Amino acid sequence: MSEPHVTLDPSGLDPVQQKLRGPLEDQLTSALQAATDRVRASYAGEPVEAVCRRLLDETRSGLHPDIAAGFQPDMDEFCRVAVAIVRGEIN
């Protein structure tokens, strides 16, 4: 699996969010990648569901509180990253 990346659906964004889409995607992606590295490094056999929840918590902790509060990711995609961590597919 390649590095995880966040892409925002433009149809779900208000005009201000649309103007900030690029930098916001960059910030979210950076937080997700850092969280992925931390979770992968400390993975100790937990089930996928626990890894997925921790990945979300770690990602949100790397964001400004206002951004974290509004961050509603596609949990299926987050769980795909968690499965890749469990399977050792992310270096």
State the gist of this model:
About 65% of the residues lie in helices and about 0% in strands.
Strand percentage lies at: under 5%
Largest sheet: none
Number of strands: 0
Helix-strand pattern:
HHHHH
Rounded to the nearest angstrom, the distance between the terminal CA atoms is 9 Å
Q: Which consecutive residue ranges, at least 5 long each, have pLDDT under 50? A: none
Q: What integer is the average pLDDT?
A: 93
Structural topology:
Blueprint: H1 15-19, H2 21-42, H3 48-61, H4 65-70, H5 75-87
Helix pairs in contact: 2-3, 3-5
Q: What would you note in describing this structure?
A:
The structure is a single chain. This protein is mainly α and 91 residues long. The protein has one domain. Helices cover 66% and strands 0% of the residues. The protein contains five helices and no strands. Helix 2 packs across helix 3 and helix 3 crosses helix 5 (75-87). The chain is elongated and about 45 Å long. It starts with 14 loop residues before the first helix and ends with a helix. The mean pLDDT is 93.
Descriptive key words:
elongated; 0% strand
